[in-house]
Each structure stands twice: as structure tokens, then as C-alpha cells.
Description:
The structure is a homodimer.
Chain A: E1 2-6, H1 10-18, E2 25-30, E3 35-37, H2 44-54, H3 63-66, E4 72-75, H4 87-96, E5 100-103, H5 107-111, H6 113-121, E6 127-128, H7 139-146, E7 151-157, H8 160-172, H9 176-186, H10 194-197, H11 200-213, E8 224-225, H12 233-241, E9 244-253, E10 256-265, E11 276-283, E12 288-294, H13 298-313
Parallel strand pairs in A: 1-2, 1-4, 4-5, 5-6, 8-10
Antiparallel strand pairs in A: 2-3, 7-9, 7-11, 9-10, 11-12
Amino acid sequence: MKLAVLGAGAVGASVAELAPEYGHTVTALADSSSAVVDPDGVDVANALDRKESEGVVGDESPDAALSANYEVLVEATPTTLGDAEPGFGHVKAALERDRHVVLANKGPVAERYGDVRELERESEGTVLFEATVGGAMPVLSTIADFDAEHITAVRGVLNGTANFVLSRMAAEGLEYEHVLAEAQDLGVAEADPSFDVDGTDAALKCVIVANVLGDGEVTLEDATVEGIRDLPVSALELAREDGRTIRLIGEVDGDAVRVGPRLVPENAALAVTGTRNIVQLETTHAGVLNISGRGAGGPETASAIFADIGRLDG
Amino acid sequence: MKLAVLGAGAVGASVAELAPEYGHTVTALADSSSAVVDPDGVDVANALDRKESEGVVGDESPDAALSANYEVLVEATPTTLGDAEPGFGHVKAALERDRHVVLANKGPVAERYGDVRELERESEGTVLFEATVGGAMPVLSTIADFDAEHITAVRGVLNGTANFVLSRMAAEGLEYEHVLAEAQDLGVAEADPSFDVDGTDAALKCVIVANVLGDGEVTLEDATVEGIRDLPVSALELAREDGRTIRLIGEVDGDAVRVGPRLVPENAALAVTGTRNIVQLETTHAGVLNISGRGAGGPETASAIFADIGRLDG
């Protein structure tokens, strides 16, 4: 299919680079300040080289990508809160042209799920967003397979940065600030880690799941969120004496969304280590399903995006 | 949709009982010696009561179910090897009538995959078989989402009975025969446990995966299979001294299918305990995905069957 890719960060770049391997053509690629458009297929390597050397992917304005010739808009710009702009506007523009949208950007489906679904109802286009929850892990597709009404609760470790910090604190007996600095050196945590360590990112994923499972009116404001900044290493040590550890767990139970540090048994499925994520789905007839894998990363998230595009194509 | 359910064991009975909850109607239900057919919907509770008291589900011959008015044939008769009959004949009959087929019976897609696909090509019907690999776990749908060409290897614990026996042997330090007898008392192992403990069941699941990933010409004969009957508890004790344990692991790597006892780290994802199953998918761009859950059981397997029916319906 013909793809317009908005966002040229790790995810957008991976989608653009891998598209030919999945049988697709990138007809437009944009970052926040520029775009390159070619109905016969953008020279992706050249565009990404130019981004690295000159800070732009091409000579056109970002809007040129929105009006390009494409079948699927891949929205991989950074997640924003509140009105979820400019991501929401991109979704709207594509749906109004009866094009499909595949999201990696969590904003539109976390903060304005009802609006997105309303635009979708009036469009020939379909909106899919597997990549927004748990990167490569097939969370939303499994919920769709089971049917939302047969999923009674969802919980999991949904942020790799926070999980890396917690598992290093537990393993090394080091305080939060020390481990965070190490994670920043390794590129696992960003310079401003708030989004990850304060639980916002995990909460957005849970809000998306709650919207899929329920009436679609949940936003980040409805979530109860606590991060890991204030967790002393002594709490992890106490937990260990009891055969347990602490993980930043996100939970969806009906419309209720909670994220916070929770005690879990040290050898339990939820006690994944490092940047790994896990999601547990409680089902009506099939017990608990666990899905674990890489919850972030360019090619990993791109895999989920290509799975969505495959669904649109099939 | 209108379902004809062949097989009235744990899986067939669960499908028939749960069908209304998923919006479907059972128009025929058969066991090996009888059938009940009603275009307006079979009285499932009555048929299953009758099976319990009289040994038959109804007054008609099993063939009556095959010629009934249905949209999807649910094949949940016992798995057979070699020519995979009578399951294969059921699949053929449905496809020749341009009906869809959803399999829980592993025989047709493990032993005669090429034949099934050939019949499907000539039919308006589609064959789906998520339930044949790992019960409730979404293994085949995840492979389909990622596209077979982006899965490089698959391995896992695919038989709950064998895993129960191994994890009890390890935990209690008891020999195979003792734990097997206990498993039989609990209903976890059958009176003749060969299919499970000799690795046949796990191998069939791996053969199905190999067929999906490859050219579709693999059968049980191509698999290298070793069971757990001869495994002494001393081997598990030696493993534990080294921080490891032993699991019956099935592996698919290209066309090669191997099943046998393997050493795995005690805290590794593969070291699931009890009857739980796990599958690991190695992907080209998204690392390793783990999916674990209940690999068998009536309602669990029925959940996978309803997921397949939902795909046909969507």
C-alpha cells in the first residue's frame, strides 16, 4: 500500500526504511518542519541522511505529506496530551479524505478516543493503533480476537524505562537517582524521564485499553497515576525479604485505570526484568493470557504498525 | 453464524454451550455415533444431557450434521494421525459445499496440510485452526499478524500434561510413574497418557506451525520426537543444582521440527509450571515475543474457535 509517514523519529524512520520489505511504498515522509513527497516512492535513505545532516527530510512543508497520494497515514509523531494536537488534526485530515490511519502516537486514542471514532464512522477509512499499546506485543489484536466483552481485566508492565530502573534498583541495591543516571547514559531513559518514570506513558496505554474495552470516554484525567521517583531502594529490599519485588503496574478494570508501584511475587510473570514489558489479559472463559515482549523501539513498534497495515490490506 | 459442531467432547460441548453468548446458533451437533440437527437452533443442553444419560446426542446419524444447514463447520473430533480420518473427510465435505471450517482437531492440518490447502483453494470456504496450537493462546493469529516471513523460529512448552508431570517431579523430587499416577487421579493425564508424555501432541502442534511458516509439506513423520517417560528425577535434581530445570520443548526452525526434554534456566520464561503452556516467537524486527496461557481445556479451546469464527464473520 502507499504510505504517508508522519514523524521521522525512531518509529517513523523504521517504518519508512522497512516498508519495501513488507511490500509497501512510502509516498510521503514528514518530520515536524519539513516533508518529502514522491508518488513513485520517496528515497527514504536520502531523506533520513538529510535529516541527520541538515535537520530536514526534504524541501516541502509538513502539510505536503497530508495532501500527498497515499492509502494509509502512519501517524508516528510524538504523543501529546489534552487536545492531542497536532496528531489529532492529522488523523482528522486523513479520515476526511477517506484514507486509513495507523497510529503509533498515543495522544489521539488516549485523549480523544470518542472524537476519533466519530470521525471514523463518517469516513471510508479505518483507524488502527496496535503500536500504541506495548510496542511489538499483540495486545489490541488479542483483545479484538477475544472480543472486548470476554476480557474482564487487563494489567501489566507497560513502560520499559521504569521497569529497567526498578529491576536495576532491586538487583544492585542502588537508589533511584543513581540508576536513572545509568539508564540515561545507556539511552534507556531520556534526559527528561518524567513521561516514563511518573507513570504517564503507562497510564496512556491503559487509557487506550480502557477505551477499547469500554464506552470510549476515558482520558488520562480519569486515571489514578503514581510513578516511581519517590520509591526508596529500602522498599525493594523489604519486598525481597518476603520473596517479592516491586513493579510499576498499570491496571484496567472496567473504566477504572490505575498505575502505580505494586508488590508482585519475585518469580511471577509480572516481574519481568530490564526494559521488557508484559500484559496480562483476564478472560471470561480462557483464564489469564500473558503476552510479553519489547514494548518500545523503532523496528519493534514498526512491526506492530505493519501488522495493522496488513489488516487493512487483507 | 450458523455452526455445525462435530465432536461432543470437552471442546465440542463448550463450543455448543457458549455459541449463543458469541452470537452464533448451533444448527447441528454430532458425536461419533449420532447427531441432532435443527435449522432453528439445537437444544444443546438437552443434547448434552442425552449424551450423558444415553451415550448419544440425538437420533440422527453423524452424517446428518455434515449435510445440515450451516455456515461454519467446527471440527472438534479427536485428533488422528496418518490419513487424519474421519476429520479430513469432514473438512473436505464442508469445503466442497463452500462452507468455512474451524478446526480444533490437529490431524488434518498436521498430517495433510497440503491437501487441506488445495481443497480450500477450490472452495469459497476458508479453513482456520487457531485452536489446534496452544488452546487459548493466540499463536497462529500472531504469526499471521507478523507475517510468516518475519518469524525466524518458534519454540515452547506445548503440552500441559507433560509440563505438569515435569514440574511436579522437579518440585517434589518424585519419579515419573508416581507423578503420572497423581496426574491421572487429578484428571490432568489420561488413562493412556502416551499422546502427551511421548511428545506426540506437542510435535503435532509444532508440525502445524512449521506448515504455516513454510511450504506446508511437513508431517509428524518429519519430526524428531522424544518424550519424558525415561527421564529420571535425578536429572531434574542435577539441573536444579545448576539453577536450571527440564521442560519438554517443541521447536520449529525452518522445516525442522524437534520435540524433547531440554534444560532451561529455572527462572526463564520457558520454565512455566503446572499445565500452563508458553510459546516464544523469534521475529526479524521485534525480538522475542512470549505468549503464555492455558493450552488446553474445553472453554479455553472454544475461545480460540470463537476468535476464528469472528475472523470469518468480520
